[in-house]
Amino acid sequence: MKNPYYTLTVALLSIVIVISFGFWFWKSPLNADCIDVSPTSAPGPAPEMDAVVSSEVDPPYVRYHNEFDRLECCLDIAHAGGAYLGQPYTNSLEALERNYGLGRRVFEVDFAPTCAGQIVLAHDWKNRGRVRPTLNEFRTELSDHGLTGMTLQELVAWLAARPGSKLVTDTKYPDVQLALLSHLEAASSKQFVRDQVVIQVYSEAEIDAPYLRDQAKILTIYKMGRITPEMIGTIAMSSDIIALTIPETFAKKHLAALRKDLTTLPIYVHGSPSRINSLEYQSFLNNLGASGFYHE
């Protein structure tokens, strides 16, 4: 017959082992799926930041406004009409309606020509092998994605019915750029265009074009090739542009120097959606002297 004390000791040791193993298993990574590690809110995509945005940057704080004549940050420019359901570059009626409803009032819109010369809202025709569509093809291709394509005339009517709205033009097509102002005036009036339209220009020569003499203009440098901050400063200070727009890659290197020379000129920044839409990045560029952003 076994010693009763031996039996009791074995039983107690068994209980200790079971309890210890249970505690270890509860804390073990093997059981991590049982631990609630859910974030309090769904995380957004991490911005593609690099070393230039360091811990020295102030916490992200960006206050938007809709006024071109304000130097301080940040003019809110809805790029390509603004995003719609997370999708950039649509230039669609749905994007315009959505972003106007959010309180945005300044809309940068891309213009492209159809094969018959009609001017429509589109970034370019790269997805069609650079072949210009008919107006019907343009509308159909957008409607297949649940979007409404617009002509320049339809955009003008939309703007006229939206108090406070402003248009910033953009186009990759020189033939459209040359005809844009006259088409806008024909669809509305010279007064409407002067009050609600800002034409983006792409060269020093275009700033001084006679047909743009009385028109509000922004110089955007993305088509100007190799250009230095000194060259930009000289052009800007001797012209009647109301603002300057630069790519974010250029801004990281040269915005601070530009701001020292151009103390009273608004400087706006554009870039890829994955970067320019980040509040942290906008805060960083604001600290360098940006006055606003083209963003989704």
Topology:
Elements: H1 4-27, E1 75-78, H2 93-101, E2 106-113, E3 119-121, H3 135-143, H4 152-160, E4 166-171, H5 174-187, H6 190-196, E5 197-201, H7 204-207, E6 217-220, H8 229-237, E7 243-247, H9 248-261, E8 267-270, H10 273-276, H11 279-288, E9 292-295
Parallel strand pairs: 1-2, 1-9, 2-4, 4-5, 5-6, 6-7, 7-8, 8-9
Antiparallel strand pairs: 2-3
Helix pairs in contact: 5-6, 8-9
Question: In words, what does this structure look like?
Answer:
GO terms for molecular function: phosphoric diester hydrolase activity. This is GP-PDE domain-containing protein. It comes from Sulfitobacter aestuariivivens. The structure is a single chain. This protein is α/β, with parallel strands linked by helices and about 300 residues long. It has a single domain (about 75-295), classed as TIM Barrel, CATH 3.20.20.190. Helices cover about 40% and strands about 15% of the residues. The chain has 11 helices and 9 strands. It has an 8-stranded parallel beta barrel with strand order 1-2-4-5-6-7-8-9, surrounded by 4 helices. Helix 2 links the parallel strand 1 and strand 2. The chain is globular. Mean pLDDT is about 85; it is low at about 5-55.
Which short descriptors sum up this protein?
single chain, alpha/beta, TIM Barrel
Task: Please bin the fraction of helical residues.
Answer: 25-40%
Work out the strand percent: 5-15%
**Please, what is the CATH homologous superfamily?**
Phosphatidylinositol (PI) phosphodiesterase
How far the N terminus sits from the C terminus, by CA atoms, comes to: 84 Å
The ordered string of helix (H) and strand (E) elements is HEHEEHHEHHEHEHEHEHHE
Task: Report the CATH C-level class.
Answer: Alpha Beta
Please give the number of β-strands: 9
The biggest beta sheet reads:
8 strands, parallel, barrel
Low-confidence stretches: 5-57
CATH topology-level fold name: TIM Barrel
Biggest sheet, spatial arrangement of strands: 1-2-4-5-6-7-8-9
Question: Outline, from the CA principal axes?
Answer: globular
Transmembrane segments: 5-26
InterPro entries: PLC-like_Pdiesterase_TIM-brl
GO biological process, one term: lipid metabolic process
GO molecular function, one term: phosphoric diester hydrolase activity
